[in-house]
């Protein structure tokens, strides 16, 4: 399953500006993350879901997912991904572990970095990222990110899981 929302209103202008400031202040000197199954390096800045400054973003993403999927999903983790011409050179097709993933593109002043996925008829489909474009996918969708050829791509990546069951029954 994949859902693409062009020109989404998932976050308001103030929240987008806050994320843009995080991109502008991204710490480039941090060590990149090496994915276990790939030879790709992704620069990530993890976002504390309990940070009061991020509260509106967390609530906005959870509300958006619930209106799109009508499920009991909650945000489990999120970060800003930074991909440049020196990272993500050979991303293999993969499936995410979490039940639901969301990508919100934060800029569009780069070349490359398309999201490519395999559809139900086994064809490869490319999504050209644009600022504010939202992609939602489940953990059955095989996908990858193609290399950047110019510039730097920033995206907010959020993973959702099922809400913990708070009630217990005695049998």
Q: What is the structure about, briefly put?
A:
The protein is of the alpha+beta class and 171 residues long. Helices cover 16% and strands 35% of the residues. It has a seven-stranded antiparallel sheet.
Could you explain how this protein is built, in words?
With 171 residues, the chain is an alpha+beta fold. The protein contains two helices and twelve strands, in the order E-H-E-E-H-E-E-E-E-E-E-E-E-E. Helix content is 16%, strand content 35%. A seven-stranded antiparallel β-sheet has the order 1-9-5-12-4-3-2. A three-stranded antiparallel β-sheet has the order 8-7-10, with no helix packed on it. Strands 6-11 form a two-stranded antiparallel ribbon. Strand 7 (115-118) and strand 8 form a beta hairpin. Residues 166-171 have low confidence and may be disordered.
Keywords for this entry:
globular, alpha+beta, 12 strands, seven-stranded antiparallel β-sheet, three-stranded antiparallel β-sheet
How far apart, in Å, are the first and last alpha carbons? 36 Å
Structural class: alpha+beta
Shape, per Cα inertia axes:
globular
Q: Beta-strand percentage?
A: 35-45%
Quick check: average pLDDT? 85
Please render the helix and strand layout as text.
Layout (H helix, E strand, L loop, with lengths): L1 E4 L7 H12 L8 E2 L6 E6 L8 H15 L3 E11 L16 E6 L5 E2 L2 E4 L5 E4 L6 E5 L4 E3 L2 E3 L2 E10 L9
Antiparallel strand pairs: 1-9, 2-3, 3-4, 4-12, 5-9, 5-12, 6-11, 7-8, 7-10
